[in-house]
């Protein structure tokens, strides 16, 4: 499967997750918005990128000792070092944010490597520092304890996982804004990008119509007369651009 086009990526960088969930619902997809995961960092543009996944199972005391991190090929470390630039590391922590799934050093490494974002339904430590980083970060909440007290990273990387109650497959497209985080199935991402962009242009017009005193009936959703006014409105905007 080819990656997300630059055109679609740019459009997804500017449409809201609210619009995306509407487009997903039109296609029968109701559970694509991650729950219990919120944005830690602040950015002018949406986070957009394809998923690269890491799965955790519950930790076990005889295996998940602090010495596990002496292994440079520990799955958590390996994921950090092998995720391709431009992708988003998505971590399955079984919606348990009582232990961290990363900290400032690992997040710095992701940022330096050009990764497009970090998503975890677990916790994150050093959150007060990471909140100022350039790399977009969506997590279940701040948590000081290391991952090893709760999470055992599975060796096989980039497999289907759950995150925030949503199925995430490798190369699914994630889009995050200040309100939420949405997973777009890879095979639908291009058309959803285009139709979401068009939906939002129409909604700018509808908002102006409602603000001018138009009633909802015939305006939202738009009837044929409203659609015709929209076409003229868009022509005028295009001419002025």
Provide an overview of this structure.
The protein has helices at residues 6-12, 17-26, 75-82, 104-112, 127-130, 189-211, 224-240; strands at residues 38-39, 47-58, 88-92, 117-120, 123-124, 137-139, 141-142, 151-153, 161-163, 166-168, 173-176, 181-184. It is α/β, with parallel strands linked by helices and 241 residues long. The chain has two domains: 31-184, Glucose Oxidase, domain 1; 192-240, no CATH class. The strands form three sheets. Strands 1, 2, 3, 4, 6, 8, 11 and 12 form an eight-stranded mixed sheet that branches. A two-stranded parallel ribbon has the order 5-7. The chain has a two-stranded antiparallel sheet with strand order 9-10. Helix 1 packs parallel to helix 6 and helix 2 packs across helix 6. The longest helix has 23 residues, at 189-211. The radius of gyration is 20 Å and the shape is elongated. The model has no long low-confidence stretch (mean pLDDT 97).
Write the layout of secondary structure elements.
Blueprint: H1 6-12, H2 17-26, E1 38-39, E2 47-58, H3 75-82, E3 88-92, H4 104-112, E4 117-120, E5 123-124, H5 127-130, E6 137-139, E7 141-142, E8 151-153, E9 161-163, E10 166-168, E11 173-176, E12 181-184, H6 189-211, H7 224-240
Helix pairs in contact: 1-6, 2-6
């Amino acid at each position: 499967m080819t990656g997300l086009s630059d055109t679609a990526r740019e459009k997804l960088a500017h449409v809201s997750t609210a619009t995306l969930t509407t487009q997903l619902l039109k296609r029968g997809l109701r559970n694509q918005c991650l729950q219990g995961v919120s944005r830690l960092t602040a950015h002018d543009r949406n986070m957009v990128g394809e998923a690269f996944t890491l799965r955790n199972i519950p930790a076990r005391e005889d295996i998940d000792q602090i010495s596990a991190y002496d292994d440079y090929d520990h799955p958590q470390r390996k994921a950090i070092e092998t995720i391709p630039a431009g992708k988003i590391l998505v971590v399955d922590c079984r919606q348990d944010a009582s232990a961290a799934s990363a900290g400032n050093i690992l997040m710095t490494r992701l940022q330096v490597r050009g990764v497009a974002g970090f998503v975890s339904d677990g916790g994150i430590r050093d959150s007060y520092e990471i909140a100022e980083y350039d790399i977009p970060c969506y997590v279940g909440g701040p948590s000081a304890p290391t991952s090893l007290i709760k999470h055992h990273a599975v060796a096989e990387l980039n497999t289907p996982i759950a995150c925030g109650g949503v199925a995430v497959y490798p190369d699914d497209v994630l889009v995050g804004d200040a309100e939420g985080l949405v997973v777009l199935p890879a095979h639908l991402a291009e058309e959803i990008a285009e139709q979401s962009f068009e939906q939002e242009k129409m909604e700018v017009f509808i908002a102006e119509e409602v603000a001018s005193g138009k009633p909802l009936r015939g305006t939202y959703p738009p009837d044929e007369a409203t659609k015709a006014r929209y076409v003229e409105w868009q022509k005028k905007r295009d001419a002025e651009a």
